[in-house]
Amino acid sequence: MTTATDLSTHDLSHHSKSFQASWVLLQILKLRIFVALFAVLLYFSLTVDNFLTMNNMLIMAQHITVIGILSIGMTLVILTAGIDLSVGSTVGFSGMVSGFLLMNGIPLGDYTLFLSVPEVILLTCLVGAFIGYINGALITYLNVAPFIATLGMLYVVRGAALLFNDGGTFSQLQGHEELGNTGFSFLGNGSLLGIGIPVWLLLILTLVTWFVSYKTPFGRYVYAIGGNENAAIFSGLRVRKIKLWVYVFSGFCAAIVGLVITSQLQTGHPMTGDTYELRAIAAVVLGGTALAGGRGSVIGSVIGACVISILNDGMVMSGVSDFWQMVIMGLVIIIAVVIDQLQQRLQKRVMVTT
C-alpha cells in the first residue's frame, strides 16, 4: 500500500531530478559561445584544407578584428535595450572621410590644409562619434525608437558616403612626403611585437570597455538602464546622458573599423561595411547579450565575433555561395535569439525552484 510519505518522497525525488536537469542545461547554455567556437573550428579544420595554416589564421584575425570592434560598441547599445543599425554605413562613411582628407585636404579658400595621419585618424573618429551623437539625440531627446532612428541614419550616412565622391572611391592613399601625411597603411597593416595593430586595437578596446562595464559607476548604470529603465529614472540616474554616450561610443568604434579597413586596402570605398551591422548584432547576441538589455558582456561579444568571422571565412573557403551564406547567417541570428530566450526561461525556473 502506497503511503502519503512515499508519494511525498517520490515527488521530491522527481522535483530534484527536474531541477538538476534544468541546472545542467542552463550551465551548457551559458557556455554556448565556447561550444560554438569549438564546433566551427573543429568542423572547418576537418573539412577545409589548410584552414588552420598560419597565413589563413592571420587573415581570419583581420576579419575578427573588424567585427570584434563593432561588436564592442554594439554591446553597450544593446545592454541599454537599444540597437544601432547605422554602424555599417558609418564604417563606409568614415573610410571616405579619411580618404578625402588624405587626398584632398581641407579647402580653406585659396589655401588647402593637409593633415598628418594622426590628425586624419582623430578627425575621422570624431565624425563617427558625431554620427553616434545624432543617433543618441534622436533616441533620447526626441523619443524616436532606436530601430527607426538608426535605420534612418543607415540610409542617410550610406547616401552621404556615395555622394562624397559621386559614388567613386579614394584610392592609393599612401600620402605624400612633402605634405607630411604618409604612413596611413601602418594602422591596418603594421605590427607591434609581432601582433598586428588592428589586433592591438581590439585588445585595448575590449579591456577598456570591460573595465568600464564592470568597475565603474557608468557601466553599472548601463546595466541598470537595460534591466529596468523606469526604475533607473526613479533612482535619479541621468538616463538620457548615459544612453547618448553609449551611441557616441558605438559610432566611434565604427569609425575605427572604417579607418582600419581603408588603411588595409589603401582605398576608401563608399560601400565598405555593407551589412556589417547584422554581423555585429549576431556576434553580440551569440555572445550572450540579451536583446532586451541588462544582461551580457563585452568578452562574450568578442568571442561571438570570432565565431561569426570564422564561420563566414570557413563558408567562403568551402565554396558556399553568397546566397547560402546569407541564409546561414540569418539562421545563426534566429537560433541565437531562441537559445537566449530558452536560457532566460530556465534561469527563472531555477531561481523559483531554489
UniProtKB/TrEMBL annotation:
Superkingdom of origin organism: Bacteria
Topology with respect to the bilayer: Multi-pass membrane protein
Localization (cell): Cell inner membrane
This protein's record includes keyword Cell inner membrane: yes
Protein name according to UniProt: ABC transporter permease
GO molecular function terms noted in the UniProt entry: transmembrane transporter activity
TM spans (from-to): 64-83, 89-108, 120-141, 147-165, 186-212, 244-262, 323-342
Stated family: Belongs to the binding-protein-dependent transport system permease family. AraH/RbsC subfamily.
Keyword terms: Cell inner membrane, Cell membrane, Membrane, Transmembrane, Transmembrane helix, Transport
GO CC, one annotated term: plasma membrane
